[in-house]
Amino acid sequence: MAVLLKGGMVFKDRGFVKTDMLMADGVIAAVGEGLRIEGVQSVDATGKRIVPGFLDIHTHGAVGVDVNAADADGFEKICRFQASCGATGWLCSILTDTREQTLACIEEYKRWKTVEHKGSRLLGIHLEGPFLSPEYKGAMPEHLLQKPDLELVKEYQEAAQGEIRYITVSPEIPGMTEFIPKLCAMGITVAIGHSGADYDTARSAIAGGAAAATHTGNAMRLLHQHQPAIWGAVLEDDKVSCEVICDGRHLHPGTVRLILKTKGIHRVVAVTDSIMAAGLPDGNYKLGVNDVVVVDGDACLADGGARAGSTLTSGRALKNLAAFTGRPLEELILLLTENPARLIGVYDRVGSLDTGKDADVVLLDEALDIDRVYVKGELCFSRT
Q1: What is the per-residue pLDDT across 91-145, written as a single tens digit (0 to 9) for each?
Q2: In Å, how far are 49, 110, 131, 235, 363 from 11, measured between CA atoms?
Q3: Could you say which of 180, 207, 234, 322 has the lowest number of CB atoms within 10 Å?
C-alpha cells in the first residue's frame, strides 16, 4: 500500500522543509505540500523529522549474532534489529578469518537474499582484512593475516556475485601500493587502517585509489608533529572519507569535533563497528574467532588486550554526535546517509529522499529518538 507522510519536516536539499511525502511501489513517489492521493494510508508526521534511512557500512553483528558465524536467519535477525535503530541498510563486515569460513559467510549472505525480509537490507559485504599489519591488528587473529593475494579476492568477489563493496587494507604491507588499484578495478571501495604506515606510504595508497580510513584514530599509528603518519595523511587529504565510531570510547568528543572540522561535513562517515553484543547486556561474546568480554557496554578482548568493536547503534551514534558537536541535524544526518552511500557507490538508490529513490525513511522525534522506520515503503519499526 502507498503511504503518505503528512506535515512532517522532510530532509530535502540538505535542509528541512515542512511538507508531505508519498511512498509508493517501494520508492519515493512525490515530495510536496498538500499532496492528496486517493487510496493511500495517511500518517500524521507533525512534529517529526523525516530523514533518509541510516547506512552502517562497518558492523560485525548484533543481538547475539556474529557476522562471521551467521546463517541466513542470523543475518535477518540483525536486519530487524538494525531497522529498530534507524539503519535501513548495512554492510556485513567479515573479520579476518580462514578462507573456508569467509566463503561460508559469503554463501549465507547470498542465502539471506532468498528469504523473506522484514527489516533493513544488506547492501553488500565489507572485508576487514586479511591484508593487515600484525603490529596494529587490534582484534584481528594474527596467524590469519597475510600479504596481498589478488586471486583470493577474486575468488571471494566471484562467490559474492560482485557484492563485496568495501575492504580494509594496511598500506605498509609489501606489494599493497600495486594491489590497491587492482581492488578498485574490481569495483571495491578501499579503506586503509589497522596500520602503522608512515605519511608517504599512506599518501601512496591514497594516490592509488584508497578512498577511506577505517575507524579513524583507532588501530592506526597516531599523528606526531614530525611524523604525521597514516592519521595525518587521511586527515589532510580532501579525497579521503574518515570513518568515526562515536561511542565516546573510541574517540574523545573533542577528537570527533577536530575530525569534522578538518575533514568537512561531507568526508566523515559514522559507523558502529558493532559486535554481536549490541542490543544485549554485558557478558561474554565472540568476534570472529576471538573471545570478547563486555563490561559497562565496552567490548574488549577476553585476554585483556585491545578494544574489540563496540555495542553502538546508528541511532545512538546520531544522538552522540549531536551531544558531542552541537552541530545542526541537517549537517550530522549526512554522516549516516549521503556520505556512506556515496562512499560505497549506492547513492543512486539510497542516501537521500530524492524522488525515485528507494523509500528507506526514518521519522525522528524532537529528542532524535527513532519513531518510525520504513524500508522500501514498508513499515519495519514503530515505537508505538
Answers
A1: 999 999 999 999 999 999 999 999 888 999 999 999 999 999 999 999 899 999 9
A2: 7, 33, 39, 28, 10
A3: 207
d(CA 67, CA 122) in angstroms, rounded, equals 12
Distances in Å between the Cα of 213 and the Cα atoms of 219, 247, 352, 381 are: 11, 18, 23, 32
- Helix H or strand E encompassing 43: strand 41-44
Identify the band that residue 78 occupies on the pLDDT scale cut at 50, 70 and 90. very high
Sheet (strand 283-287) strand order: 283-287, 290-295, 298-301
Residue 206 exposed, middle or buried by CB count within 10 Å (0-12, 13-18, 19+): buried
Correct CATH for 3-50+353-382 of 1.10.760.10, 3.40.1350.10, 2.30.40.10, 3.40.50.300: 2.30.40.10
Query: For 323, phi and psi rounded to 5 degrees?
Result: -70, -40
What's the pLDDT score for residue 306?
Answer: 84
Alpha-carbon distance 76 to 115, whole Å?
8
Cα separations in angstroms, 363 against 9, 36, 51: 9, 20, 6
Instruction: Just give the CATH number of 53-343.
Output: 3.20.20.140
Q: What is the DSSP string of 91-133?
A: EEEEES--HHHHHHHHHHHHHHTTS---S-EEEEEEEE-SS--
**Helix spans in 113-222 (H):** 150-159, 176-185, 199-207
Residues counted in the chain: 384
Residue in the structure block whose three cell numbers are 545512538: 316
Domains 3-50+353-382 and 53-343 share a fold: no
What are the Cα distances from residue 184, in Å, to 167, 208, 307, 344? 10, 9, 30, 11
Which amino acid is it at 267? R
